[in-house]
Amino acid sequence: MKVPVAALSVLILAATLGSPAHGSLAHESLDAGFQRPSDCCPSYTSRKIRCKYMKSYFETDSGCSQPGVIFITKTGQRVCANPQNAKVQRCIMNLKQDSVENLRSHLIY
Questions:
Q1: How confident is the model over 84-97, as pLDDT tens digits?
Q2: For 60-103, where are the E strands, in sequence order?
Q3: What domain count does the chain have?
Q4: Is 88 part of a structural domain of the chain?
Q5: What is the CATH number for 82?
């Protein structure tokens, strides 16, 4: 059975774009203040946030349909999380504390 070229094109496009396994992927915001849909979290990860694998985070812009926190893992993956979740809030606090400690260790007195 032959697959029509249009259907094959759609399948290839869908495979290329893919759907993220850990919530929505994100990119840097545009300088003009506009939000790309990928800067927002249309859904949150269903997986448990393991802070030891996170390198940094940023909060989504108020222009998004719902609030979100986008964690950047040590391997460079982006994970959308619910900012109201207690584990997410603890991870944010830990990352802030680590950032301050790193800054202090690099200061010359």
A1: 999 999 999 999 99
A2: 69-73, 78-81
A3: 1
A4: yes
A5: 2.40.50.40
**What pLDDT score does 87 carry?**
95
Please report whether residue 1 resides in a domain: no
In a domain, 87, yes or no: yes
Q: Which pair of tokens denotes residue 12?
A: 């290839």
Q: Which domain holds residue 92?
A: 22-106
Does 63 score more than 80 pLDDT?
yes
C-alpha pair distances (Å), 58 with each of 25, 73, 79, 108: 12, 12, 10, 28
Q: Are 29 and 40 in contact (CB under 8 A)?
A: no
- For 93, other C-beta atoms within 10 Å of its C-beta total 11
Let me know if 77 is exposed, middle or buried by CB neighbors in 10 A (0-12, 13-18, 19+): middle
Beta-carbon-side half-sphere exposure of residue 57 (alpha carbons within 13 Å): 29
